[in-house]
Each structure stands twice: as C-alpha cells, then as structure tokens.
Records
---
Amino acid sequence: MPIEWNEKEEVFHLYNGKVSYFIQIVHGKYPAHLYWGRQVKTRQPSSILAFKGRAFSPTTEPEDPKFSLDTLPQEYPAYGNGDFRSPAYQLLSEDGSTITEFVYNSHEIFQGKRPLKGLPAAYVEDDSEADTLIITLVDSLLGVGLNLHYTIYSDLDVITRSASFENLGNREVELHKCLSMSVDFHQADWDWLHLHGTWSRERHIERQPLHHGLQTISSTRGASSHQHNPFVALLSKNANEESGDVYGVSLVYSGNFQAAIEVDPFQTTRLSIGINPFDFTWLLKPGETFQTPEAIMVYSSDGLGGMSRTYHKLLRTRVCRGVYRDKTRPILINNWEATYFDFNEKKLKEIAEAGNELGIELFVLDDGWFGHRDNDKSSLGDWVVYQKKLPNGLAGLADYIGKLGMKFGLWVEPEMVSPDSELYRRHPDWCLHVPGRRRTASRNQLVLDLSRKEVCNYLIDTLSKVFKSAAISYVKWDMNRNMTEIGSAALPPERQRETAHRYMLGLYRILEKLTERFPAILFESCSGGGGRFDPGMLYYMPQTWTSDDTDAVERLKIQYGTSLIYPAITMGAHVSDVPNHQVGRTTPLLMRCHVAMAANLGFELNIDKLSEGDKTLVAAQIQQYHQIKDLVCFGDQFRLLSPFAGMDTAWMYVSPKQERAVVFYYKTLAVPNPPFFRLKLRGLKREAMYKVNNGDKVFYGDELMQIGLTLPLIKKDYSSFLYRIEKVN
C-alpha cells in the first residue's frame, strides 16, 4: 500500500511514485511533519528531525530538554502548552480554559476514500485510486477525540486533508478554531502566491517574498468571495511556469475561510487553511462530531504549470460530478446584456431565432422572468412566472425554443429575498438578521437564512416545481450579495456564531437534493460572476460564470489567473457587445470570440442586431469552436505568455496523447515598427512532426517548442490569432 507505518520509528510514509509525505509520532504523542515533496527513499526517517534547546521555548518532556513544541514542526498544532505560533485549532471547555493536549491514540490505514458527511470533497470511483490514513488523537481530560484525515491519490501529486472533532465525554466543549490542515516546512526562503480582486476583476495573481511574522488572506463575507480565492501557494525562488518547487493548498469550501503563512525566527514556515475563525464558534455536545472542510494539497516540481495541470485533472474528474463532467458544454446565448429587465416573449424568441441560425445550441433566459420583476427592486423569492412578460409561461417559451432545435436554460437567485416580495411579507424572519438591528440591503435584497431547515425545504420544493414546469436543461444559479447581520432567528444565543457555517451546510444540502432530482440539468454557479468560484461549488455545479466582466482585454487576466487552479471546462465565457458594458472598451469581434473560446463559449448580446458580416464571422467561429472544444475542455493547458507581464498573452491546450493542440495568442496594444516575435510552444512530443493550421510546412515538436512559431507583424490594437496544431503520421 502507498501508506507505510514504520512502527519502530513511529513514522508514516505516504507516497505514490511521485510524491512523499512523512509524519512522525514524536515521544509517542505528537504528530510531527518531516517532509512533503518529490518522492524519496530513506532508511532512517526519524533522523530528519533535529532538536536544540532554545531560550524561552518551554519543554513538555523533562527528560528531553532539547525538545519543545515551540520548535517542533507539527501536523496540527495547538496554542497554550509551549507552541507560540498560530494554532490549527482552539477549544473552549466548560471551565473557561482553552488549554488542550491531544496526543496520539491510534491510527487506521485503508484503501479508498470516504465521503465527508454534509460537505463536498474530492472522491474516488474505485478504492484502488487512493489510500487513506486517519490518525486519532485524544485529550483525556476533555474527553474529546481528534481525527486527522489524509488521503493520497495513486496517479496524482495530490494529498487531501481534513480534521474531525468528536465529543467522547459528558461535557460540552466549544470549537473556536478548527482549520482543515496545517504543515510546517523546514525552510522560509519562499515566495507566496495568491489570487486577489473584486467584482468584475477577479483572481488577479500576486506573488511576494515571505517575511517574518504572519501573512494571511481571508473572507468574512459569507462566501469564498471576489476578493480572495480559497487558495495559496508557496514557491521556490526560481519557480516559474515550467520548473521549480510549488506547494499549493486549496479549500473545498464556499464560505468564510482563512489561509495563513507564518515564518518564525528559526526559518520554519507554517502554512494553513480552513474555516475563518473570525466570528465563528461551534458548540459540540456529548456524542456530536464536527467535520472540517477538505483541503487539497498539490506538490509540483514542474513549476506553476505542473501544479495547475494536477489541479485541473483532479477538479475535473474527481471533484466535479454528474453527466456533464465528461461532456463538452453547449454553446449558449444569454439575453441579459441584450435586454436586461426589458423584454417580452417576442424579443426572447427573436434572440433565440438569430442564435439558432448561427449555430448556437442553448438559449438562456436571465433575470426578470418571475414575480413582478421589472427591475432589481422586487420579487426575489417569488418563483412564479411573470405572465405579463411570458403569457405562455416557461413551458410555452421552452417548447418554442425546443422546436428550433435548441435547448432552454433559466436564471435563478434562490438564496436571496426582496423586501418587496410575497415571500418576505409572509416570512420576514426567514432572512439573516439580528433582532432590533437594521437589515442592511444590497442590490435591494436580503439573504435567506439557509441555516433553517424550513427555508431549505421551501427552496427545494419551490425550485423543483420550477424545474419540472418546462424542458429546462441548464440553470444559472446566481448569488448577488454578501452577508451582513449574520444571525438566525432559529438558533439559541450560544449557537449564533454557527450561522455562517450552518448556512453553507444548508446550501450544500439544497444543491445535493436538486442535483440528485435533476441529473440532466447542467448547473452553472454564479455570484455576481466569480464571487464563489471554488471547489466546493464545483462539486455540485461543474462550471462557474467566471466574471460579470465580459471585456476581452480584462478577461485575459481573469481567465489566466483562474487557470492557476481551475480547468477551462469549469469557466463560463461570453462574447458581449461593444462598447463593453463594464469598461466601455471597443474590441474586435474576433478577439472577443477567441477569448471566450478558451473556455465554455457563450454569447450575451443583441445577436439579432449584428451586421451580416459579423454574423458570418460568429458562425465561422462557432464551427471552429466545435473542432477544438474537446481540446479546451479536456486537454492539458500550458500558459505561454502572461497578461500580467506585458501586452501579449498566450496559452495552449494539448490532447492527452499529444496528437493535437490549439494555441491562442492575443495582443492588446500594438507598437510602432515591431520586431518579429517567436512564440515557443509546450507540451508536444519532441520527435513528432506537426502541421500548423493545415499548412504545407511540417515542424518537429522540439522545433515548435525551442524555436517557436513566427508570428505576423501586428499593426492594430486588440489582435488575436488561433493556431491548430496537428500531428503528421
């Protein structure tokens, strides 16, 4: 088995031919981190650790004065009994103390991977795909057990981790902090990388050197957020796209999170991620268990590109689920930027007809179809058809769309409620709120309290009726505000700080039920675009609306940054009108198509108003996309030029057998009298021969990778080129 237990040295070794992870039980009590990285062999793994007595570092073992928890590289550290660094957890006991001492009790090693109750997580389809280690620690005074869960995949450089607390005693305890993983590295000469942003400017890359002390990213917004993605990476100083050591950690969770890196005076680096402890507690009664979300840990010796391709494969094949997991997605037309709230059935049919003529496969009806919704001031929560706009209902419109040969999709925003709605008038206590405090509105809406079972049941039943009412094959699930006044009328005072996490558990329950009932529907997650683009949502919905920003130039950075973790098949990308509605920029239609074709292609514009020339171009690009979309969706991605480094961007997708590839190149601003430029490709077979765009010339793979493609001289702004690479037999 790829998990070995050396009983003599009390060392666990997790390995799979690519990566090794060593844990030692020091003094028979304390799980210590020895090593994580490229697979190694060692005859004396316990000799990895070295100890020295340090001033002001107390020892818990009188017979070993060199030993201190303050300098021990730990697997799941506590605060209060010798380690002064940031802990992975904190418990409050009935006597008011937060001191704990969890020590090794037992372990279990088995083949396969068990699901996490109520939470999304990576999975296996066969037990042979992975092996799992559970280390059980116990605090005998508290009567609480702590289980550290580790799974290593056989064919991927991936280890997943989580923790669960079980109250084995007869007294209540309160969790104040419970991260999903923590690991102590024996060095500090790293850079750290994360993805930051805001609405319409999500997942921009930021890389900085580590410094002594604590560095964190987090969300307190009730969602993983536009501002920070639940991901962070440590990079060796020489790491780039192609080479160098990279350690990535990503959280399978859609709510408040924290990722932290701490460097101590002895050049140890502590990396951790999990539920944000700010404004969080959880009351654990006797017999109850609390399970943390799962962290996905990826090691790459092949730089950021290697890390990304590992994340892409795992997320695409062992986090995403359902019938669409292994299918390319239909090309869609969404009416939102074409009409906003101002539409009727006739206008929608005109858009669908025009799209159908160009080869578009799916028509999506966006916001404004329900209640009395003529703007964003009313009706969220009232999921009944607005007869004034749709006199024949959803079924009538869907039937018409179906007769065109297209599929029909629908926008919903179920987690919200408008103060001006029948639902709110009936149940004003069903929203998140604190009695006596104002209810802060955003976009004229409040957030429903999904910590309440009756609210979840209402949404499951109501949405089931909507989804059964017509031939709906796609649902865009939106969430257009973050949480304020996070409190629940259904929870007692001692459980109020559980509300945000209970909300996520409620949301996951709703999504589990609906995706089970409607397996043929393709669900797309959205939160004002990319405000909840995380592995937790991908577990239920295999793609996410990447950003509300549809400007082609801005999308280069957004899609490039997103691709660090998430594969192209999980990204929704639309061609929209110009001047762009977010930034006012005018870009050529061809570039807009080429940017959107590097993900799941869609359109969001007055397609029936296009000129004949533009319609011809769109139809041609749709045909082109059909020829390459399997590469974009299932190929290995290689990022060639970064939009964060200059005015050129390029990436490519290569088939698993390296027989085909597609290359996208974008130039934002032209320069006078430019030099010739060669674009060096990656991921091809060196000795194989390839044609480019079915031309007469034949190139060796190493020629294309070492010498590159000579690009044409460009004399205009916002230019793009697409190259199809085919292996010659």
---
Amino acid sequence: MTRSVRSLLVVLFDLSGLVFAWVGGLLLRFKFDIPPNFIPSLWWGLAILWPLHALACRQARLYRGIWLFASLPDLKRVLRAVALSTAAMLLFSLWYRQYLQTIPRSLLVLYPLLLLLYMGGGRLAYRMWKEHRLYGGLAASGKPVVIIGAGDGAAMLVRGLERSAEWRVVGLVDDDPNKWGHELSGHRVLGGLECLAEVLAAVKATDVILAIPSASGEAFQRATDLAVAAGAHVFTVPGLDDVMSGRVAVSWIRPVEVEDLLGREAVSIDAPLIASVLAGKTVLITGAGGSIGSELCRQVARFGPARLVLFEQSELALYALEQWFVQHMPGVVLVALAGDVKDAARVEEVFAEWRPQVVLHAAAFKQVPLMEIRNAWQAVRNNALGTLQVAECAVRSGVERFVLISTDTAANPTNVIRASKRLAEMVCESLHGLGGSTRFAMVRFGNVLGSTGSVIPKFQDQIARGGPVTVTHPDIRRCFMSIPEAAQLVLQAAAMGQGGEIFVLEMGEPVRIVDLARRMIQLGDYPEGQIRIEFTGLRPGEKLCEELVDDAAPLRTTAHPKVRIASARTVGGDLLPELRIWLDQRIQTDAQVRATLIRWVPEYRPAS
C-alpha cells in the first residue's frame, strides 16, 4: 500500500469518527429511536460539522504520528482535535438553535466522549493488532532470561525485549521487597537478588540481564557475583542516560565486562571552561594515534577547534584515526601529519606551517619491561628529547598552552620509563621557569582500561586461547580509569592550569591484578579450574603498587574533585643546556643511561 493511500485512509477514518460521534450521540440520547423532527438536525450537523472537523484534525497536526508507534504525544494531538471539533459543534448548536431547532444538551458530553473513543481507541487498537501481527509470534520464542532490577531502566528494557526473537523475559528480581509479587509489563518480580539461583532454576533460565544502570559499582559487582555464582551468563544494558532517554535497543545488550565491575563513576567536566581554551583554536596533538592521543582528538573535536593537527609516528595508526573522523565527524578540519617527535626538522616544520595555539603532547614510549633492557636509551630519547624539542618549538612559536601527558606514573621512579617521564616533566618545569607566554602543565594518571599493551587485552587474549593467564605477583595492585575519563580529565586540568602545575588525576582504589584475572575468567563462562593463573615474577622495573605522587609530597585540591596538584622539587632553568648535550649523544648503554638518570632525577631508584 502506497503512502498516499495510507494517508487517505487515515483521513477517512477520522472523518468517519464525526459520523460515529454525531449520529451515535443522538442515538444514545433518544435510546436508538430518533424522533422524526430531529432527522433534519442529524443531516444539517453532518453537512456543516464535516469540514469543520476535518479542519480541526489538520489544525491539531494529527497526521504527523505513525499509528504503529501511537503513544502519549499522539493521544495529546487526538485530544486537541476532539476539543477543536467539540468547540465547532457547540458553535453549530448555538447557530442551529437560533434559526431552526434546539440540539439536545447531552450531546455536549456524548459527542466528545464518543469522538475520543473512536479516534483514540482506533489508533490504540491498530497498534495492538499490528504489534501482535509483527511480534506476537515471538512471545514464546527466544531464550528465557531473568532481568535483575525492576525500575525505569528495566521497564524500558522489557518493552524492547517484547519485540526480540532472541530473548523471552520469564521474570524479574529486585532487592526492594515492596516490588516482590508485583508485575512489570506483565512479568512478575519473583524476589530479591539473594534468591537468584532458585529463580533461575524455577524458570529454567541460564541468562541474566542487569538492568540497574544507576546502581553503584559495588551494587553492580554484587549482582554480577551472584549471577556468576548461580551459573548464569550475565549481560548488561547501556548507561542511565541512554536508558532514560529511550535510546536503548535490544542489540545494545552486551556481556558484562570487567570494566563494568571497577565502579568508575561518570566524570563531570567544566565544558564552558574547556571550550574557552579550545574553541576556534588550532590544536596540535602528538602521539595522536595512541590510546590516549586518539581519545584526546575525539574529545577536543567536541569543543569546536578551528583545526586538529594530528602528529603521529605510526602510519597505520594515523590512517585509522583519520578514517574514523571522516566517517564519524566529517565536519572537523583535520591535518594528518606523519612524523617523529625526535626529528627536530620535522617538528619545526609543523609548528612553522600550522602555528598551533594549544599543544597536547601524548607521544611517548610506555612499556616498562620492554624498554628497561636493551632499549633504555631509546626510551629516554623518545620521552625526554621528544618532549624537549616539541616544548621548545612551542615556546618559540608563542603557543598559549602546552600540556604534557604523563601516561605512566613519574613519582618515585624505579625504572627507565618512569624516570624518563619525570625527566620530561622537569623539561616543562624548567621551560616554565624561564618565563614566556606559554603556560605549561603536566598531567599524571595511572593505568587506563583497554589501552594498547595494557593488562586487560592481554588477559582477554590468554583466556581466548584457553590459558594460562599470567600474573607477575599475587599482591601486585594497580589503579584503573577508562580512556574517555582520562582524556576528559586531561582537558579539564589543561583548562585549569595557570602554568607549571603537575596535575594528578584521582584514580580510585587499587585493584589486585589477580582478582581482575579471576573475574575475567568467571565472566568468560569457563568452569572453575579450567583456566589456570600462573605467577611469573615481577618484571624488570616493576613495582607492586604504583604511586602518583612523590613520598611525603602533599597534594593540593583544585576546583575539580578528581584533579589535584602535586608538589615537586624546584627545577632550575640551567637544566636544559647540559641535558640537551646528553640527549644529543648517539648511543648510551643501559648502565650508562641508568647512571646518568640518577644524576638528573635524584628520586630515581633503579630496581635491582
């Protein structure tokens, strides 16, 4: 059926509603025996009210809605049309009484009621019939699933699952006793989370969906633990904002991941402040293709920069990032440049041609064990010399803000990577101490979830291969945050910086890596003991627990609860000339690198 034919049928249906309400009202008034003297009133009413009713329906914008999805906004439009049509009927009654005959007063009540019943009920009946025709056969199909939660998120999820051939809701559980025994969209709340195992056995289900998007990390973790202990496959839905805005789709249901269990709350940033720093500016991001660098590019693009200059050594990473912007944010003015921060001529060329106003320096080596042995000199040159060259170009070019991303911790370093990052911070502190218009800021944070080379992708690969999962030490602990959270807080710190600060991001409580591994094995639905965990011993330069601040160094609070400022020893401006001489040397052995780093970075204590 064509669209024009469907539209015509809808209009004819609404016009027939006039006949139903007008004639039906007279029939009800006279108990289905209309006196002959009222027959002219019937015909006069149909003739005069028909065009007025059609005009009322059009004025109420009644034909914007799709009947299959008839809902509250459609009902409001129907009410508006009924009110306008009733007003027209009232005017007709007054006119008709003056010149011809009185209209029964009961019609003032019967007419709008019958009209609303016909127009609103017809739309509802069509939606119910159509949904039954499209999805009714799915009611008994799909895998049985139990929903954890009986709130707003669960209500929207249940409605979505009614149209899914993959799932069939057989019950809900919720810790609120007031909901037990009640129904949500026809599905009963069978009890609390503690009886989840009994519920799953009773309804013969092995799948569970967590519909508690507003729950705390601790509550989410408890629900997951109970579901895993009951032998269920555990899935979850998107966050609260997506659920409450109605954007949830069944296809968005995904297995629970270890990131969901770490309890990181959504970060809040001062968007107007950040926009004042980035909007309309040329922003250069070094290491743009890395985990943090690429997310910084995406976050910066939200604030309307004049252009984004992407500087990246890896051709593949640069191409992938450029294509992402072409597909997802084509309106962003992008300049994709291949280059190495150690290449002084290339760095000078980039600054001279594009004149960036904000520089986010994320280019760095970060793999501790790999760079500790036989690669120490390359780590120092990339992290320290690269920072020195980019930072000096920024000063000469009059860059407004320079932000060093200390992706790995630089406090109390025990390995070359950490010491080289501390040395990079010292370069920025020294340049800040020389004066000038460029504001320097350094941002420290710990591990980010899912970054290249991090522990979670490694564990996922080991679990997929059947194990064993390798952990260096039973007591090793790390703090984690998500990549978007880290990038947003970097921008927050950058916008707050007045010059020379070392910002420290709040990382939460440290997590035992072995516990992380066990959770990932459990979430992979592997029987207990099938995948072994092996302890391999601490790697070169690795600590049991990382620090984000120096020993006994107090932290100063800022206006943002997740951003603080670390105190560090003063770095003089005379550092740079001698440091440049050392970094320009062609080659240094690992032992020479460590010995010299101890002189430059007194807090560096190489691990034995």
---
Amino acid sequence: MTFRQFAFNNVFRNKRTYAAYFLSSLFAVLVFFVYAIFSFHPELIKVNSSVAIGLHFAEGIIYVFSFIFVLVSMSAFLHSRKKEFGLMVMLGMTNHQLRRMVFLENVLIGFFATVSGIGIGLVFAKLILMAAERILNLKEALPFYFPWQAALLTFSAFLILFVVISFFTVSILKGNKLIDLIKGSSAPKKEPKESIVLSILAALLLTTGYVIALSVREIQVVTAMIPVTIIVIIGTYFLFTQLSVFMINRMKKRKNLFWKKTNLLLLSDLAYRMKDNARAFFFVAIVSTVAFSAIGSLVGFRYMFTTSLTEERPFAFEYVSDQGNQQEKKHIQLIEKELDSTKYENASITIKHVTTENSDEEDSVGWGIVSQSEYNRLAKAARQLDKQVSLKNNEAMMLYFHNPLQEMPDIQKRKSHRIGGHTIQQIGIQPMNLIRTHEDYLVVSDEFYNNIKDFSTQVYYGFYVKDWKDTAKIGENLLKTMDVEHTSGFDDNFRFSSLGYDWDSFNQASGATLFVGLFIGAVFFVAAGSFLYFRLYADLEDEKRKFSAISKLGLTSKELSKILTIQLALLFFVPIVVALVHGAVALTALQHMFNFNLFKTTALVLGSFTVIQIVYFLFIRFNYIRKIKSSI
C-alpha cells in the first residue's frame, strides 16, 4: 500500500467524523457554483447587469467565510484525532510523514467536495434557473447553458482554498509532543473556573448593548450600530467563556438541586462541556446572528417598501396635468382606451394654487385649494369613504400628505386663513394619500371654491383598478407611448405613474437582493448547525467510554436518554437562543429606524429558523443517543 493509498483509506475509515465536514464544504461549493452560474449567464447579464455584479460580490463573501469555516472545522477534527496520530508516531511515522498525510487527506476531501458540488449544481441547474426566474420576476426565461466559466472558477477557487487550508492545518501539528498526542482528549481536564468580574462584565455589556439598541430611534440607529455590535460581541464571548460556567457552578452549590436524581451527573459534565465548547458556541452564536439579521433585514425591507407603496397609492394609474399642458385631453383618452377592457373607475380634481395669509401668524403661505364635491368624488373612487368631508361656507379642512414610513407631524388643527380678501376657518386636519403631488391642501366648500380668483391650476386624475397588479404591462405601454422617463414618469407639463409597473419594477430589483441575501444567510446558518455537529461528534468516543462506565453503576436506559437529551438541548440551543435574542434586538432596532412595524416579518424569519433548528436537533439527538447506547 502506497502512502497516498494510506491517506485515502484514512479518510474513508473516519467517514462518520468527516461526513458533516464534507457535506458542509460541498454545500458551500454548491452555493458558490450556483451564484457563478447566474453571474455568467448571458441572458441575465443582458436583462440586469447589476444582479450579476451582486452575485459576484456574494461569491466573494461566501469564499471568505468558507475559508474561515473550513479552517476552524479542520482544527476541531485534528484535535479529536490526536490519539490516532500519537499511535502512528509510536509505530515509526515521522513528523514530516504525519503532516504530509494530513495534507493529502485535506486536499482529497476538498477535491471530492468541489467536484461533487459542481456535479450536483449541474444536475439541478435548470431547476435553479427556473426558481430564479420566479424570485427575480424576470419577464424572459433563463435558458440552460453549459456554465464552463462558472465550473472553472469554482473548481480553481476552491482547490486553492483547500490547499491553503491544508498548509494551515499542517502547521497546527507542529510542536506537539508524543505524550500529548497519545493522551489526546483523554488527558485529565482542570475543573472549570470562572471569573466573577468577567461574568458580571458579560451581563453588563449585553444589557448595555440591548438597552442602547432598543432605545435609539431613526438616524441614531446607524450611529449606534458599530459600538453596539462591538459591545454585544465582547459580551457574547464572555457569556460563553465565563458567565455560563459561573451559572452552572452556582447551580452545583445548591444541594437540593445538584443531588436530585441525575442532576449530579448532568451538571458536573455540563460545566466541562460548556468550557470546552465556549469558543465554538461563540462562533455559532455570532454566525447565526448574522444570518438572522441579514435575512430578516432583507425580508423586512421588501415588506416595508411594498407595504408603503400600496398604502401610499390608492389608484392604479395617476396623471397630473399642470397649467398649459396641451396634451392633457389626448393622454386621458389614451389611458381610458388602454383600460377599455379592464373594469375601472376614475375621478379628477382641479387644484387652485393661491397664496394665503395666515391670520394667526401674519405670514404668506402657498396652498392648493380643492372643492368639497370633487374631493369627495375622488375619495369615493378610491374606496376611501371615511376620508369624505362635510363643510360649511366659511370652513376648511387641511389635508396633509402622509408617508407611512414617517411619524405623524405636529400640526395645529385650528387656525384662520385669508384667501382673496376673505377669512376662512380651518376646523381640522386629515392625513391623506388621495392627491399624490406631495403637497398640503385645503378642502373648502364649493361656493367658496368657485369665488376664488387669481390662481393657477393643476388637475389630478386617479384611475382605480381592483386587480392593479395585473396592469404592469399596460403601465409600461402608456409610459412608452407618452414618451416619458420610465423611472419617474415626469415631464415638463405632466406626470404619469402606474402602480402595477412600479410594483413589478421594485420586485425585480429587490428580488435580486433577496436572492443573493437568502443564499448567503443559508450558508451561514448551515455552517452554524454543522459546526455544532462537529463539536458533538468530535467528543463522541470519549462520551461512549464515559457512559459505558457509568451504566455499570446502575444508570438505566431511560435515565441515559434523559441526561443526553437535556445535555444536547442545552449545548445545541443555548447559542441558537442567544442568536435569536441578538437577531430580535437587531430587527427591532431596524423597525425603530424606519418607524415601521416589522413584527410579522421578524417573527416569520426567526420562527422559520427555530423550526429548522428543532428538526435538525431531533435528527442529531436520535443518531447521537443511538450511537452512545450501541457502545454500552
């Protein structure tokens, strides 16, 4: 048997240990390859070049993260195999040969993970392209093509990554004495000790970070983001390395708890495992927090802007004609012709722009004046009957344009205005989105409106369509026919907008960002779960020996299952719960920044991750307990 065959056989003898590492590496390669397929797709580049740029950026993030993830994972594996390495050295293997063997094993696993990832990507490429068409709302199909550029980039990038990682992992073995290798993980461990000062500091840092994050508002959130993130990261590190051990040791000192049934065994072992895995749990908590926050933010932003878009615009089509617009009649006929086969309702309102004198403050203010009857017809057409008003001859209602993402302004409800030498009394204020020229208006009685002189006019037309999402193509055709800028719909004398077209355009733009973000978040989340798996199975042989010895003292199968379930649940969910709390605080701060309720999206994202994690835990628990019991 050659040395290369020996390294090859070593990998397959330890396939259980390497399985999660191989599959996680394969997943990272697969996601990188999927992004490369899209970023090099000729049709996608034609449709939206910014998406391709975003995908290349995502590839860079995944590549950097994959490097860190693989390096940390391999370090854990090498630590669990120290005894095996010690036996090889005793049997005559030199340090050079040992490092060469580890190098070959790493490269071998990396090669197969890379080839398998590319192969699976090619098999499911068409399905992935079809899914992307739906997520990105692309009008044109993305045909299948052979992505040789993507395959070449992925293969070369990850082959380099695994070779570099192999050099790093080989350096870890340097300086280890034979006695340390032979003892491996069975060397006696020191009793876990905690620092009371650092434990208190952990609680203070996390509390301070949470309080600041939850108390800041609007632009202050951006200012506080970096210092709060640093505070919470440091606090999380001390939470796992110090505060967790402190709390377990305090529970051990409570005799009524510590000596109850199997708690003695559970708590004694838990303190050691929390201390040993503190850095791994810190890594998992931070990575999971990044995944929660990134995906939650992307989903939240999309929900926020789509909701504000629909709440702000009650009409499917809007047309604003300024004074002197010679094409007004022609354009309105054009819109009505396009909507001829669609059930719609329209209304118009003529706005008289005048300069009024504020009787209370004696300053001149420019206002748009609208009549009560036209405004009520517009409200009826928009299905907003609650916005209709009833005024006397000398009364007025102030309408202010309200953006759903902004707080309600502090406006004086009652005041007097001088219009054309006549005094009119404002009796109230009303937020509205019916006349979308982003100005404030006064609604007055028809009699008062007809008597106004010295004014300029502007006409607003609103077209209500119940199924407005189906009108995107009509809106695009009208924008082209009117020869106005698609992104704004503005011209010198008129403005036209289509809710369906703007909705479709926004979904295409945000869909690209969401597509990129979801996959990056998925990579982070899978890596976090896999790392927990690595840590559990790295200690599996020690756990088998320990519980085999304890079972001889009378530990029943039911008690063993209970101890392992509680222990696994604590080790598995403590970092995830910490990440969930961090993510909830981060998304709440985002909500405060935009003054928009993101509870539903936050609950959806965090709830989905929690359900996935529970399923993952049940799968791991079943296999872990089965392996422990099989050794007894």
---
Amino acid sequence: MRRYLASLAVAALLLGGCNGAAAEDTTAAASSAPVQGGKLTWAIETEPITFNPHQYAQAKARLLVWNSFEALLTHDDKGGYLPWLATSWEASADGLTYTFKLRDGVTFHDGEKFDAAAVKANLDQLLVAGYNPSVATTQLKNFKDAEVVDAQTIAVHLKQPDVLILDFFASPQGAQVSPKSLKSPDLKAGGPSVVGTGPFILDRYTKGQEVHYKKNPAYAWAPSNAGHQGPAYLDEITYRFLKESSVRVGALTSGQVDVIEGVPATEQELVKSDPNLTFAKQLNSGTAYNLYFNQTHAPFDDVRVRKAFRDAVDVDAVLQGVYRGTATRAWSILSPSSPFYEASVEKTYGNNPAQANSLLDEAGWSTKDSEGFRTKDGKRLTARIVLSAPFVRDKRDILAQAVQAAVKQTAGIDLQVKVVDQGTATDALAKNEFEVFDNSRADTEAGAALSLIVPKGAPINRHGFTDPELEKLIVEAQASSDPAKRKAAYSTVQKVYTDQAVLLPLYAPADQVAAQKKVGGVGFEPTAGVPGSAYNVWIGK
C-alpha cells in the first residue's frame, strides 16, 4: 500500500517555472519582493462558457477556475500529485478503494464547511443524469460510491482499479463546489452564486465584457508549491475578454491592462523587445491540436482518402505562414511535452503531393470539375469542418483556412470551413453533419485524454475509428500503476492512429503571457503548462 503524506496546505497554482518550455523573464518583478494589495487587470482571449468547474471544457478557462475553486489534489512539476484540500491519501492493495484525509478548518465562500459530506455531495452531483455526461461516463466510469468515514475522511470505492481517479481529483471537474451552491438555479452556468474555497471570490460578471474577483481574506490553505501561504497578494483582479489579439496587445502596450495571455506570433517580438514588458511561453500537456477525420461516412471512410488529405498538407509551411516560426510541430495525437509521447511516428507521413494525388486516383476520385476540385460519380470531394467560436484560439480559424488552401491547391479537395456559435456547432456534431473536427486537450494526464478519444462511444470519439485491441490497452493502462506498461500501451495507440490516418496533427498548443514589468508572480501551472491563477501574482507600486 502506498501512502502519500501531506507537506503543506494547498490552493491556486502559480509557479514561474516553465518545465523546459521557451520562456523569458517569467517572474516579471523577480528582483523585488511581493507586494500586498492592489488591483490588477488581465486581458484574456476566451470568455468561459461556464464558471462552474464541473462543466469545465476550455483550457483557456483554467486560470479562472483555480481562482475560486480547488481540488483534493494538485500536480507537481513532474506530473505527480501533491495534497491540496486533502492532506493525505492511500490506495488499498487491490486498487479498489482510495481513502482521503481532508484538511480541517476550510470553508467555502458562503460559509459552508468543507468536509467529507461536501466531497460526497459533489461526487453525487456529477452522477446526476444530464449534469455532465462526459465526466460520468469517462473520468468517473469506474466510480462505485463514496463513503463518509468521518468528517475529515472519505473513502472512494471503485468498480475496478483506475489510476486516473487521482487525476480526476486534481482536475477542474473534480474541484469542490459548496453543497449550498449545488442547489443554485444557476449551477450549470456558474457565477457569483456558485462558490468554492479558493483564494478569490467571483463577485461580478458582465457577459461579453469582464469578470471580477475579490480577495478571500480567510484563505489559509495553499499547496506547498503555490509560491506562498495565506491570502492572495492582490485585493482585486478584473479579467477583460478581448478576443482580438491585436486589441489585447494594444491594451497591454498602452497600459490599459497589466497582463495578457495569448500573444500572437506577429506580436511576440514586439513584446519581447519592449523594456517595460515581460514575456513567457510554455507548451500545454495533453493532446496536440489535431484535425480528426470522420470515418462514419464518405469520403473519409476510405483510408486512402484520409492519407491523401494528410499527404496534401505541408504542415511546416502552413504553421510558418500562420505562426511565423513560433509553433511547435505535432506528429502524434499527444503533445510532445507528454511523457507518453511516441517520437517514432515523426516524419513518417505528410507533404507528399504526388502520393496524395495517386491515392485519390486509386480511390476513384480521378476527375476534376471546372473549379479544379476532384469528383467521383459527379460528386465533389468535399469535407466540412465546423469550428465552435468559444473554442477558437491561437488563430485556429486562420489555420483552418491555410489547410483549406493547401488541400485545394495540392490535391483538389474542397475543405469547407465555418466558424459558428457553440449551439450550431454542437448541433452539427450531433447530426453527424461534418467530415473533419478539431480538438486539443490540456489534460495533465495524457491517459485521461486518450480515454475520452479512443474507446467506441467515448465523448470525443467523433471520428468513428474503433479497434478492440486499442480499447483493451486503454483499459489496462488505466488500471495499471506501472509507468512502463502504460507508456507501451499509449505508444501503440499513437502508432495505430498514425498508420490508419485517424487524424492530422498540426501543432502542440502553447500559452503565452506578457505583463508590465511591475507585475510579479505570473507563471504556469505545473504539468498542465497553462497560465496559473492569480494567487501568487502581485503588482508593484
């Protein structure tokens, strides 16, 4: 039995370390001591769909989640776990029970006590039909029940061994919401009426404009890797939603805001050369940004067409055109920052126009119409990709247009790109009215991402590719505590996905943060590589 003992308390994650990713002057005010008090304005690229951590789905929203909510565990910079709202935990010899000792003296923003009953209430809520089906059927698929042993002890019973349960208890979806908040009529959307235990309290939200947080003066349970203990340094922080990158950068350089995230390639040199600003960058964990082919109907039910599309794109040239040398090329479903990344798939496909055209000829798409698009039986070789606007980051709409131009010019494929609202995108996916869909995941555990993508019927298995052997490997890896066995399983998944052209990997998502020199403590979450919360941030006088 392995036992994990507590070190210190726990809260929001804001280390300046960058785990080897490109970064410069990440601590902004490293030469000065942290300053108590003050108000800070931070411009962000993406407005959250929801402020309820249980409903979390946007990597860009993590920095907001951890401002006001916390989980039982957190990650260290090597992918391991540290106590947060739990003080220690242990697994039974058969791997079917995880017992968590909980921190005493923690209160939610509404005055409710954090205890084992609160943890059980959160787990019960996540299993309510229609609340968050993807969590219930994936992250909690092996969850059996939760037993309140005493006020500060909860035992989580599983149907079968599942090492990823710890990742769940360190994820936004596993964050703790006040039991009183679970009864809020605004529960799914979140907001001021849905509260956690974190260092900041969300007290004001203006849709389409900004969200405001104030310091939680009672906060006293930060994790050992949080940067400091006690309440946050800042008194208040306002996050402004500025989707246009040029507007964000302009707001920073003009002094209208103190920090921005999402610095585009076209502006990075400008920011780096400004003596009044600092810049930091880090790769995200989880999966790469991939285009998946829908194999449930033509034309991508034919592996030759999938491979032809992949070979029709010079990904390096496309990335250079859109990101000007700042993007990291992806070759696999997983980000190269993942410890499970399989490097052997690199340079095994792509940028081969002759082969792309030969494959399409072989597949029967051998004629062209007046616009130069390939046809078969009088029908054009068309593929639709529907991008959901709330998830468009990093100029992914421009990237899709660059891929669109490449496959048209090289192979005569008509890729139709649409950027629509979330409801329209969800409807298109539900009706199977697409041939390509895009996705990236910032999961701290790559296995958690693959469990959402690989199995038949999994929430992100919209591509329709199924393989019983791969599904078996995913299940075995999820039940194993042997890193070598898990790596071998995930390596096989990556090789098969590459061989079967299930997807076209494009780039490894990264986050960039720029700040005024007077701002200190800005950094990234350990392991995840996304911007951290504002807990450790201060602003100089």
